[in-house]
Specification:
- With 97 residues, the chain is of the alpha/beta class.
- It has a single domain, classed as 3-Layer(aba) Sandwich (Hypothetical Protein Ychn, Chain: A).
- It contains four helices and five strands, in the order βαβαβαβαβ.
- It has a five-stranded parallel beta sheet with strand order 4-3-2-1-5.
- It is globular, with a radius of gyration of 12 Å.
- The two termini are 21 Å apart.
- This is Sulfur relay protein DsrH.
- Pfam families: DsrH.
- InterPro entries: DsrEFH-like (IPR027396), Sulphur_relay_TusB/DsrH (IPR007215).
- One of its GO terms (cellular component) is sulfurtransferase complex.
Length: 97
């Protein structure tokens, strides 16, 4: 049973991203939205944590563009329509509020 983990808070304010990565199953995916896209700033601890383990990583392209964050080639930039499709594809969606 796969889970889509949706993160929307800055990874620099708390440990949500770290906790999420610890709980990931092999079929799970992570979607960075809102301020969570700041995790993709190179040379930061969150960036290194995402890069260090195999993660099915998706990024809302509008949120990355609004924050001038470049989506690395090992993550997939998606729009809201693809977000909905991704949500349907997984058995559960867990929003890290």
């Amino acid at each position: 049973m796969s889970t889509l983990h949706v993160l929307s808070h800055s990874p620099f304010g708390d440990d949500r991203l770290t906790s999420c990565l610890r709980l990931l199953g092999s079929a799970d995916a992570v979607l960075l939205a809102g301020d969570a896209v700041y995790a993709l700033q190179p040379d930061t601890v969150p960036f290194s944590a995402l890069q260090a383990r195999p993660v099915n990583l998706f990024v809302l392209v509008e949120d990355a563009q609004a924050r001038a964050i470049e989506v690395p080639d090992w993550a997939e930039a998606i729009d809201y329509r693809a977000f909905v499709e991704l949500s349907v594809r997984h058995a559960k969606v867990n929003s890290w509020l």
